[in-house]
UniProtKB/TrEMBL annotation:
<keyword id="KW-0808">Transferase</keyword>
<feature type="compositionally biased region" description="Polar residues">
    <location>
        <begin position="31"/>
        <end position="40"/>
    </location>
</feature>
<dbReference type="InterPro" id="IPR051334">
    <property type="entry name" value="SRPK"/>
</dbReference>
<dbReference type="InterPro" id="IPR000719">
    <property type="entry name" value="Prot_kinase_dom"/>
</dbReference>
<dbReference type="InterPro" id="IPR017441">
    <property type="entry name" value="Protein_kinase_ATP_BS"/>
</dbReference>
<feature type="domain" description="Protein kinase">
    <location>
        <begin position="64"/>
        <end position="412"/>
    </location>
</feature>
<comment type="subunit">
    <text>Component of the EKC/KEOPS complex composed of at least BUD32, CGI121, GON7, KAE1 and PCC1; the whole complex dimerizes.</text>
</comment>
<keyword id="KW-0418">Kinase</keyword>
<dbReference type="Pfam" id="PF00069">
    <property type="entry name" value="Pkinase"/>
</dbReference>
<dbReference type="InterPro" id="IPR011009">
    <property type="entry name" value="Kinase-like_dom_sf"/>
</dbReference>
<keyword id="KW-0547">Nucleotide-binding</keyword>
<feature type="region of interest" description="Disordered">
    <location>
        <begin position="17"/>
        <end position="43"/>
    </location>
</feature>
<protein>
    <recommendedName>
        <fullName>EKC/KEOPS complex subunit BUD32</fullName>
        <ecNumber>2.7.11.1</ecNumber>
    </recommendedName>
</protein>
<keyword id="KW-0723">Serine/threonine-protein kinase</keyword>
<comment type="function">
    <text>Component of the EKC/KEOPS complex that is required for the formation of a threonylcarbamoyl group on adenosine at position 37 (t(6)A37) in tRNAs that read codons beginning with adenine. The complex is probably involved in the transfer of the threonylcarbamoyl moiety of threonylcarbamoyl-AMP (TC-AMP) to the N6 group of A37. BUD32 has ATPase activity in the context of the EKC/KEOPS complex and likely plays a supporting role to the catalytic subunit KAE1. The EKC/KEOPS complex also promotes both telomere uncapping and telomere elongation.</text>
</comment>
<keyword id="KW-0067">ATP-binding</keyword>
<dbReference type="InterPro" id="IPR008266">
    <property type="entry name" value="Tyr_kinase_AS"/>
</dbReference>
């Protein structure tokens, strides 16, 4: 059994030498949403709230020409556009009309404006590892106004590339580079911009294009306008550059958008418990991703009877507390759901050992080796990786280390 019953994450079987660019890399092709073959506007998903786009449309006083469709999410569509003034290509993100029309609150435009403003005079290396908005404007549609943002063109997300090339673990060399860059991104976002991302996932970490003009020139575009750009493969590049992307539900340190943040399986325990939270939620979120990228395992999946969400949440918290320690009284006393989880048998202060518990070092050593070939990581590397994980995944947010301090950790030294 893996570390606290960790569940194996299986990736897709399709192989490819390139990946599809997407600013929002979570397109749906199921009953949750399909695309019109001419306009690529989401159907069956309140389509009237999305702005209808045609390939060849020209926006913002003739400056941007739509060349193809890059991706769509629950709240926006993303398009490849050519800037006729600069003769360069960018990504255009068009929000649906629910936002900035008084129906749903969103800080994305304000967050991206803050990042752009601070980046213009900052020497922080993290500014090069966050998505950068280079322009914005509005479009008017039948259901209201649509905020539009122009971003630098990025390559595929880590999630997309891992699926396409059957990558269950990230290459070790590339992983160290990626983690350092993401910690720099978080330190910049928090320390200089006062921003918390709140939604770090493999789909929101995008690989930079080595040569954007060449990637666009060699792009494949199908008859419906779907664009596929060649993205550097993590396993082949000696130097990898990534950017933290999609600040769609990001917030400011002094103004939170919602308490429903982070992917559930990567969510900090104080958020699940309904306790107050701060920028340390991003550190936990990234630490959970490090464990996943390092071992190829989906951490803290949680198991519930008959797939009951509450039971799975309780089991997940039990796994966390058995691995990384229980919560202090100050968190429990201020957690809206503490009593609920206690009644479900969650040992909030870790007075018992969770069944199936395996030491972190043993788990990492076992899942970083390939049966019959590689012996796995050297013992000193396992020790350093686990020490970093414990600092990032500390269940007590007060002792969870900030990004700036984590950047000096020995595991990142040779990345």
């Amino acid at each position: 059994m893996g570390l606290l019953s960790f569940a194996r994450e299986r990736v897709g079987s399709k192989k490819a030498t390139s990946s599809t660019t997407s600013l929002i890399d979570n397109r749906k092709r199921s009953s949750n949403g399909s695309f019109d073959s001419n306009t690529r506007t989401p159907k069956k998903r309140q389509a009237d709230k999305f702005y209808t786009v045609q390939i060849g449309d020209v926006y913002h006083r003739g400056r941007y020409i739509v060349r193809g469709h890059l991706g769509s999410g629950r709240y926006a569509t993303v398009w490849l556009v050519k800037d006729t003034r600069l003769n360069e290509h960018f990504a255009l993100k068009i929000l649906n009309s629910d936002f900035y029309n008084g129906k749903h609150e969103l800080f994305e435009l304000e967050v991206m404006q803050r990042i752009s403003q601070v980046s213009s005079s900052s020497a922080h290396p993290g500014k090069d590892h966050v998505a950068q908005m280079v322009d914005h404007f509005e479009l008017s549609g039948p259901s209201g106004r649509h905020v539009c943002m122009i971003f630098d063109l990025l390559g595929a997300s880590i999630a997309k590339q891992a699926t396409q090339v059957q990558m269950q673990r990230l290459p070790y060399r590339a992983l160290k580079q990626i983690m350092r860059q993401l910690l720099e991104a978080l330190d910049f976002a928090y320390a200089e911009c006062g921003i918390i991302h709140t939604d770090i996932s493999p789909s929101n970490i995008c690989i930079e294009l080595a040569e954007a003009p060449a990637a666009v020139a060699a792009a494949k575009v199908d008859s419906a306008g779907e664009v596929e750009l060649k993205t550097p493969l993590l396993s082949e590049e000696p130097k990898v550059n990534v950017r933290l992307n999609d600040f769609g539900i990001a917030c400011f340190t002094d103004r939170h958008l919602t308490d429903e943040i982070s992917p559930p399986l990567l969510r900090a325990p104080e958020v699940t418990l309904g306790a107050p939270w701060d920028s340390k939620v991003d550190i936990f979120n990234l630490g959970a991703l490090l464990l996943q990228f390092l071992t190829g395992q989906l951490p803290f999946a949680g198991r519930g009877e008959n797939n009951a969400a509450g039971c799975a949440e309780s089991d997940r918290l039990s796994q966390l507390f058995a691995s990384f320690g229980g919560e202090p009284d100050i968190v429990i006393d201020n957690a809206d759901r503490a009593e609920e989880f206690a009644k479900n048998g969650v040992d909030l202060q870790r007075k018992r050992t969770h069944s199936g518990y395996t030491a972190l070092e043993q788990f990492v050593a076992e899942h970083t080796s390939d049966p019959g070939s590689s012996p796995g990581l050297p013992a000193d590397e396992v020790y350093k990786a686990c020490d970093l994980l414990r600092r990032m995944l500390a269940t007590d947010p007060r002792i969870r280390e900030p990004a700036g301090r984590l950047l000096s950790h020995p595991w990142l030294a040779n990345g």
